Amino acid sequence: MATKIPVTYLFVPADRPERYEKALASGSDRIIIDLEDAVRIDAKQAARMALRHADIDWERVVVRMNPAGSQFFEEDLLAVAETKVTTILLPKAERQSDIVDLLNALEREVEVIPQIETAKGLNELDQLLLAPCVRRVAFGHLDMAVDLGTANDWDSLVLARQTLVWRSRLHHKDPPIDSVTPAIDASEVFREAASAKRFGFGGKLLIHPKQVEPTLKAFAPSDQEVEWARKVLAALENSYGSAVAVDGKMVDKPVEDAAKRVLAALTTSEVDQSLYALIDKDKN
Fold it and tell me: What is the pTM of this model?
């Protein structure tokens, strides 16, 4: 059975525990309880205390710690160890050894998402992708722009984004998570999310609940794409190994794979079980 990977990751400040459940109710696939940028220095301790006492669905929660080596990291680690967190977002990730040390300190396996925000992190991307418990990476374009001395618009960071997608695919990892969109306007959020999807990203970081719906819409296959994919896979299922044409175009392996990706992006309830057999057949 194909598993739909998370698309939306909504930030919520760790020192605002009254927002945790509201964020979970936003429709976002995951929420990120943020101990880093969203929390002032004088509120860090209160944020950790709120995290420790949270009674929430930890399977849908990611905790963003402060960067490894920062003055806040060790205390963050102690707080995280007292929770049932299953996923950690590690900002300004630059060393595989930091991920190994983090896991050793926790003495249990959690998914780790390295956030690539510096030139050094991008240069060490392969090692970060190959670190234990890493399934995908996330981009932080605002800090990356500061580190590189570039503008933070899309065109200025094309190479960084393409590198994340390329190296993630090379190492058979889930598609990376794109950075935040500062704008709240639905059309602007949709536009940037659609651009991320075209580049090969598989998800996006969000800063406001209003960004959830347009982001999910941008990443979801259109009705036309779904109809086409169903036709392709249904034709293949009935071909018995013969050559197949759909809408006057021959169906070769890349076309078949593209159709599978479209349907794999849907939830289980939206895809016929007979088609999942085709989606998964290469894995058997």
Answer: 0.85
